[in-house]
Structure formats: C-alpha cells, structure tokens
Fold these 3 entries.
Entry 1:
Amino acid sequence: MDKMLEAAGCGEIDWGGSGAEEETGVKKRTLSKNVHADLPHPLTGSVKGSLVKGDYLYYHYGCDGQDDRGWGCGYRTVETMASWLCLNLFAAKQPSRPPPPSIPEIQQALVSMGDKPDSFVGSREWIGTFEASLVLDHFYDVPCKLVHIRGGEAQLEHVAVEELHQHFEKHGSPVMMGGDRDNSSKGIVGVCTGDKGSYLLVVDPHYYGCQLEMSELQRRGWVAWKRVSSLDQSSFYNLCMPQTAKKGTKD
C-alpha cells in the first residue's frame, strides 16, 4: 500500500493465457502471465539465483471486478499460487481441477473447514500464510510448509533466504510472505544471493487498475527485485511454501 493506487478500469479475463475464459459478474478481465520474465538481474559477479519454475498468473486488487483494496492482498497471493498449481500440476493429468478460487470461495472454504466463523463470509477480513496453507490443501490437496522468521538481518539474510533457495530448487512454486509490522502480503517468485547480500523477486498484489504490459508493471515496481535488507527488520515474517515435489524425492 506504499504505492499510489491506480485508476480502476476494465479488461478481459483469460484464465490460463490460452483462450480459456472466466467470468465474474458482468466483467471479463485478462490476467498477465509470468510477470517477472526478462526482469534484469539485480546482482553481477558470483551469484546464487533460484527462480519459480513454470507458469503462473498475476492476481491483484480488483482483477476479477471485486474491489478488495486495503484487505485482499493475501487472497490475491493465494490465487497466484493456486494458478501455478493449476497450470503446472493439474493442467494435463487433472484438467477438471478448479481454477483459482475467488475471494468468496476462499472465505466459504475457511468457514466450512471450521477455521472461521460464519460472519467471515462477505467480510473484509484479511488472511495470512496459515489460512493460505489451509486453502491450498482444501482445494488442491497440496500441503504447505510454514516457516516463521523471527526478523532481523541475520534471520532474514540467512534463514529466510536459504529456505527460499531450497524451495525454488525443489518445488518451484510461488511463495507467500507476510508478517506482523509488515503485514502486506507478498508473492515471492525468486531469490538471489551475492557477496553484498540477497534480493527477493516480489510480485506485489496491491496493484489496482486495468491490465498493464509486463514491462510497465516492472517499470512501476509492482514486480521487482527487493533487497532483503529493505524489509522491516523489526517485523517477523512467515513463509507459506507449497510442497509440490513428488513423494519420495529427497528433502
């Protein structure tokens, strides 16, 4: 929410980026795919880099016609993660798997599984990494690893960064990151480490407006490499990491 919210607009939703359409109310919108592609690397020299593997769609405020500014960032990050599951795990073997759930569907699922009271449906209450793990397991039977990072430079630069490197190398899916003082949900699709520190590749769900070209999203900073040291050092953070590797693979 540090950025000025863009003007609302219209568009057409093309779920999957290959002609499949999804309608929400009377509006159709187009979702951008793999919005981090071709983003220049932030470091030079000897660098360890790990990126998302496969396709995902960029879900953000208002992308389906529902104005969720100020509270919906967690839902949108979950939808981005769910899009990766649909496009990479189930597209060929289980095409009947549902597309990413809408905000009302997420809320109803959390009520149905007993995590939230009935009043949660239709509310503007946000969700975090724990709820994200419940939702992905509920809709896609994919468990998630939750990692708590106490905060501070050492924890963020070493524990969080190493967990992310391992995740992208083994599982390859987008990760949800959120905290307490820094309570804005972030989608993480990459990490890189060099002699002068580490960067996270952040897909920010807080953009609101008509579809933008990938290059414009990157230019405006909605998709960007962020120095780990720029995170709130006084905030704890949680990571939600879908466990998508086949059973029997080495941890």
Note: The chain is about 25% helix and 15% strand.
Entry 2:
Amino acid sequence: MALEPTTLLDRPRLPPAPPPLDWLTLADAFEVACLVRCTPPPATDGRRPTVETYRGGVAEFNREDAARRMRQLLGRLDVPVEHELATGGLRRRYELHRLTVPREQRSAYATLLEAGWRQGRRELLGGPVPGASTARRVWRPRLAAAAWRSALLAGGRHVRRHILGVRLIDRELAAVLVRGAALLDVPALLRPGAGCFVVSVAHGPHRDRILDSVALARAC
C-alpha cells in the first residue's frame, strides 16, 4: 500500500551538520580540546569517570604554563574564562589552576571544542588525501604539533634517559599523538601503563624534532 504524501512530509528532519571550522580556528580549538583531554575527567555519582572533551566548562591543571596557554587560546577564540589559583599540601606544596567558562558561554564553548576535536582528530587519523590542497598539507603538521604541545604541557611527564614521553588516560588522544608524530617525521611508541597509556619518542634527533615543532614561539 502506497504511503500517504503527508507521511513523508511529517518525517522529522535532521539538523544540518555545522560547517567545518577554518584552519586557524580549528588549530586553536583542537589544541584547547587536547589540553582538556589531557586532564583527568571528574568522577560522578561513584561511577567510573568517562573521557570527554567538554568537562562542564571547567579544566584543572597543575602547571601554570598549561593554564596560561589555554587562556591564550580561548582569548583568540573569543571565549571568556575565569582563572582561579589554589594551593595545598603540607610538606610538598602544589598549585592547582582552575579555568572556568562562564555559564552563559558554555554551550558555545562545548560546541566549539567538540567540533575542534572531531575535525582535528579526523585530519590526523585519516590517511593521505590524493590531491590534497596546499592548506591541508601545511595545517596537518600544525595540528600534530598542537596535540604534542598540549600533551607536553598538560599530560603526565614520563621522561627517562633514553625517551621523552607522556602519560595519558585518553586512548584516542594517545592514538592522535602517535599519528601526529608520524606527520612530524618522528616514530612514536605507544604502550599501556598502570591505568594509562604512555606515548614516547626516542632521545636525540626525534626528541629534538618534536620539541622544535611544539615551540610556542612558532605557534603564536
């Protein structure tokens, strides 16, 4: 039996996909997303914490340079943020830098981070595109550098005599770092750690190439 015309007309329409971010906005939004994903997600209701890009508009860092970098990026993206500093500890003092996006800005912030993460991840994990534009060939290594810069600023340092590495709990970000290192002509090793993943590169020319690529003087 043929469907009535009104049946097809009443079918709900899916919202159109948002347009892709331009390269400059993508690089900044992707780096912010990587910074946030380097931090441990908060546990809720006694359940195991889940890894996600948006953390209720809050990010906490134990290093000032990571917080300062995120503030710089959000400023370029026109996202206001409040910076609180707390200190604690008795014999060993520590600092905790909390960045909070105002409530009225959190919806736009969440959308921006999700778009930045998805688009940046797709660019890095996808294979070479035949006939890729000059812009894509230029910006993919910059996205790789942004991911490594975030990990070195906000991830857990895992430095040994023969390697430079970071500890992460986010499997997807770890995969992005391995692929990003390859785009920077550096082989990276991924191995499981105690409740985390360790991504490392060898000391020597490979370590130097990573550090040269992530230098903030080039990124800003």
Note: The chain has one domain: 22-219.
Entry 3:
Amino acid sequence: MRVGVLKGFLSRRYLGFWEAYLEALGVEVVRAEAAPDLRQPYCLPVQGLLAQVEALKGKVDYLLLPDLQAGVESEKGGGQCPWLLDLEAALLRYFPGLPPVLKVPAELSDRVLGRAGEVGQILTQNPMLVGRALDRVKSLLKPPPPFKSPPGSVGVVAQPYLLEDEAFRETVEEALRKVDLLPFFPDLPPEKLREEGDKLLPMDLPTDKELVGMVHYLHRLGRVKGFLLVVSYACPPIPGLLRRAARRLTKPHRLLTLGEDWTESLKALRAEMAAL
C-alpha cells in the first residue's frame, strides 16, 4: 500500500504526525519532488501542488490531502478560491484520474485520533494494527511551534500557506534586506491569530481569520513600523480581503504580489517609515 503526501498548503502543521502514523501502519509514504510548471494560470503555490500531484499520479494507491478549513464552507473572502475552500474538489477538476483521497485535518489535536482510526481501517482492515499504530504516534499530536522571526520592523502578512513556506520567508527577507529593512513575521499560533482576526473583521474561514488576525496582531506591536501585505497573483479574493483589513491600518503599508519586483515599492515604504 502506497500513500502520496504533499509538501506545502499547511503541511508543516499536520504531515509529521500522519507520516509517522502511516509508517507505523506499515504503509509506504511517497513524496514527490517536482518543479512547478510556471505556465499554469495559477499562483506559485498551486503550481507547485499540481506538479507534485502529477508526479504522484499512477504511483500511489491513495493521496493524503489536508482539510484547510476544518469543514467550514463560505462564499466570502478565501471561500471564492476553490484551492482554499475545497482542495480535493479543485484537484478533481484538474485531474479526473486522481487517486482516492484521504482527507485529514490540517491541524493537530486529540480530535485527530478519530480520523486517524478511520484512515487506518481503510488502509489495513486490521483494528488491532490500527490501535498499536495509534499508541505509537499519539504523542506526536502536538502542533509545531511558530517559526522564530527576525527582529525586524516590517510586519509581514500573507496567507498561512505562504508564511509557512520557508522559501517564501527567505524571498521576503532578501527583498527587504536590499532596502535595509528586516521583516517581522507573526509569531503567534494559528488559534491565537484567529482570535485576533475576530477582533478586526468577521470572517468565516479559518485561514481568512488568520490572515486578518495577522494584521490586527502586528499593528498593535510597537516594534512594527510598517507593513508588507503579500498576495499570490492568481487569487483575486485575497487582495480584496487584505485591502479591507488595511483600511484599519495607521502605519505605512504596501500590498504587493508574489513574483513581481518589489524594489521601488519597498524603498517608498522605507521612506514613509523613516518619516514617522
């Protein structure tokens, strides 16, 4: 039995537990290393996702996918983006021959054990093996700690799946360093950011709550003197959501698109921050 897993789209939050669990079940875990096809009319994270699925197709019996929104449905904000609302449905439209999907929570908690038991039964049909495997890995049901952030003055806000991508964080750091600035990434766990989001804008989807929560949290930090709001170019709902949140800002900010040249915008941001 072979199960394909994907890097990205919040995999840092859930994949460590699920890989260990699948291996405890005696299942082969298959990762795909594939370069994104930049000709695809989607944002870079989705291009990377599609490349991985393409590489796994025909090589695995099941595909493990995260439920990014914890079962919440909405037509507002990120709910207008099919990749954020229902990853499985979006992939099925793109890959009619997608392997059977095992959908799992994108975050870890004790509630994950129930779904893990169901997945184990699907894969092995052996309740005793499932029980032993769960006993071996349930200590891993701990959310990973937030990334440590450089001690910068520019608060960085982006969709959670971007902020948890180390390559994205390096890109932001490099861009800011060129204009003698340093980033400060949100350093609260997701549930705390969602609480912050509820204080700023009423949103339905967990990832949207996190996004606006970053704005609210960073804005009240004295060390943050300006904001860099980053969007993926092919996700029109997200820029609109960030513009709404940015109306509450009293500090200099720029809304920029991943993949474009940010140099002049960041120089202007630095000048506005220096004038405060």
Note: The beta strands are 2-5, 28-31, 62-67, 101-105, 154-157, 183-184, 226-231, 253-257.
